[in-house]
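Example (one chain per record):
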Amino acid sequence: MPELPLYQRFYYRLLGAVYGFTYWTTHHKFLGFRISLLVKLLGFVPVMISWRQNLKGQVLGLALLFGAWVLWVYWRAKRAGYKRFVAGKTAVSPTDNLIPLPPNQKIPVKASGVFGVSDREEQVLMRPAKYWRVPLGDHTVMVQPEPGRFLYQFFSADTLQNIQRGWLMHGMTPHSVLAVTFFSSWGTEPLSLRTLYQGGDDDSQNKRLRTIYLCFDDADDERAVRHTIVFDAREKRKA
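Predicted structure:
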């Protein structure tokens, strides 16, 4: 994130740390209780102390505000999916030296976003996944939220809307990612009223706008996947 001003880098790192903390405490337990529940209860300890000590007025008000703020932080983090995407200054554009991957070559990634199978969907965050392109041109991302269980997303040059390089803020360190936005009819989430009544053909009405985030351990893998997606999009425009 060197292109961002220092104050923005500090803010996004702090935000990522908050998201990482709230996610970890929500998904781990201590003595059978979620750690997030214990943190929320601790947030109201000042309220109980103020009440017991008969400290009313501004002191009690500040204690209540602090407890409410802790609850709000957890609510806001969950609503955001415990992550924040910060786009680079420019979107990825086609170049003259695109080298796409051969069909069915699987590339390891860490995936974030909404993935699903025919009967369920769920949010995943930085989970192990595989990306590949099939011979007919469809792109597949298969994510493993836990051992022995797999979820999917599919897109093509026809459904691709945008691809950007940027950073995913989750934890102390920003993660360099590709953000891939596309229309998808895969999954079980109900269609919004806007989608149902926006007009157009039936196929377009059955699609939802999705963004998934792909993080790579190897820069060459990131370049290969980016070239493959942009290459297909450019060839589609030529057709």
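Caption: The helical segments are 6-26, 35-43, 45-52, 58-79, 193-196, 202-205, 219-238.
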